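[audit] Reproducing an earlier prediction to check determinism. Same input, same settings, fresh worker. If the tokens differ from the archived copy the diff job will pick it up downstream; this log only records the rerun itself.
[audit] input (158 residues):
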Amino acid sequence: MQRRRIETVRKAAFAAVVTAAVWVWIGPVVAVISVAVGILVGLLVYRKKAPSVPGAVYSAAADVIAPGSPKRRPGQLSLTASGISWLPSTYSERQGVGRIDFDFTKVVVALQNGPALLDLTLVISMPTGQVYQLCTHRSAALRRTLRTITDRHGGGTA
């Protein structure tokens, strides 16, 4: 009986030591793995922006959905005093997408909620009937800048 108790205590002590060693060992390993996964996800998600247009009063990363194309292409949205410009990223340029410029006097711009919680879509309607969509992040500065510029041009937003 005494021998069984000693054996049970010995097994329990061994299990406690092994458990403590595993927890001490797993703690730093889990931390290192978490940091590595975070860096990897950050590198995969990071999107290098294209340069903004000279004289831009507002600039942000934005994806364009061109008429007749279901694919989104990354680039840089720039608002200037006379219009909207979208410059493609190097990836978009490799896919054959070029710079797109819109004149505020010739287009109608509408703002819509985007597909994600913090997305905003600029729907740009051309006089020819073509509709471009620029998907960017929701920003009070974007709305304010767009409102200020279009008020100078006598409308232009829907």
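[audit] rerun output stored. Observation attached for the diff report: Helices lie at 2-45, 90-94, 140-152.
[audit] end
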